[in-house]
Write a structure and sequence with these properties.
Helices cover about 55% and strands about 15% of the residues. With about 240 residues, the protein is an alpha+beta fold. The longest helix has about 35 residues, at about 25-60.
Length: about 240
C-alpha cells in the first residue's frame, strides 16, 4: 500500500509539473518533472523488482544455472543514477540562481558528484559473481575470493531500503579469508564483512539487481547448489546466466 501511495503521489506531482510547464511556468514545472519524475522511476523500479523476486521464490521446480560465466555488475544502473544526479543538480542550480551563488552552488555540487560517479563507473572495472563447482567466486577491481559451497550456512532473501537483497551466512570465515587474492586485500575484506554483519546480521550481501538477475532466482539457485553436492558438476558447463 505504501508503494502505491508513493508511486501515485509522485505521478500526481509529475502531472502537475507538466501542466505548469504547458502553462508557461517553467520554474515550477521543470523542477517538478525532474525531481518527482526521478522519484517515480525509483519507486516503480523497486516495486517491479520486489514483485519479480516474490514470483521467483514462489515458482515451483528446480532452478538451474550454468557456471563458468561471470554475472557482471551492470554499469547502466550507476550511469542512470549519475545522469539523475546531473539532471537534479542542473535543475536545482537553475531554479535557485536568482537567489544568489550560495543556493545555486549546492546544485552544481550535486552535478559534479553525478559526473564523478559517471567517470568512476566507466573507468573502474565492474564487480562480478561467478558460480563454479567449487563455490561462489566474487571479484572486483580490488580483490577476488571464493565462498565454497560447503562453507555456505544459509541463504536468505530480504530488503534494505526497500531494495531486494540476498544475504549469505557462512560456516567458515577463515576458509574464505584464505582464498582472497591478493593476500594484502584480506584485511579489507574482513573489515567489510564485519561491517556487513553489524548492519545486516550477515557477513556477505549481494544486490541481485546490480547484476541484472532476480533475487529469488539467485537465492534459490545458491541454496540448491549448497544443499545438493551432486548437482554442482552442472556448474562446470559454460553458457549464459539469465535471471
Amino acid at each position: 500500500m505504501r508503494d502505491l501511495f508513493l508511486i501515485g503521489s509522485s505521478a500526481v506531482f509529475v502531472a502537475m509539473g507538466l501542466l505548469a510547464t504547458v502553462m508557461g511556468n517553467l520554474r515550477v514545472g521543470v523542477p517538478s518533472i525532474v525531481l518527482f519524475g526521478s522519484a517515480l522511476f525509483v519507486f516503480v523500479s523497486a516495486r517491479v523488482g520486489r514483485a519479480r523476486t516474490v514470483r521467483a521464490l514462489e515458482a515451483a521446480g528446480t532452478i538451474e544455472a550454468i557456471g563458468g560465466v561471470r554475472m557482471t555488475e551492470l554499469r547502466s544502473r550507476k550511469l542512470g543514477m549519475a545522469a539523475m544526479c546531473v539532471a537534479i543538480g542542473v535543475t536545482f542550480s537553475w531554479q535557485f540562481a536568482p537567489q544568489g551563488w550560495w543556493p545555486a552552488s549546492l546544485g552544481w555540487l550535486i552535478t559534479v558528484a553525478g559526473g564523478a560517479l559517471a567517470v568512476v563507473t566507466v573507468v573502474r572495472a565492474p564487480s562480478w559473481v561467478q558460480l563454479n563447482p567449487t563455490g561462489i567466486e566474487f571479484g572486483s577491481a580490488a580483490m577476488r575470493y571464493v565462498v565454497r559451497w560447503d562453507h555456505l550456512a544459509a541463504v536468505k532473501v530480504g530488503e534494505f531500503n526497500r531494495v531486494p537483497m540476498v544475504f549469505l551466512a557462512l560456516r567458515d570465515v577463515a576458509g574464505l579469508a584464505a582464498s582472497v587474492q591478493p593476500a594484502e586485500a584480506r584485511s579489507k575484506l574482513l573489515a567489510g564483512m564485519a561491517s556487513s554483519e553489524g548492519m545486516f546480521g550477515f557477513p556477505l550481501v549481494i544486490q541481485p539487481a546490480a547484476f541484472g538477475v532476480e533475487g529469488g532466482w539467485l537465492a534459490r539457485a545458491l541454496a540448491q547448489y549448497a544443499a545438493e553436492p551432486g548437482r554442482r558438476a552442472e556448474l562446470a558447463e559454460r553458457g549464459r546466466i539469465e535471471g
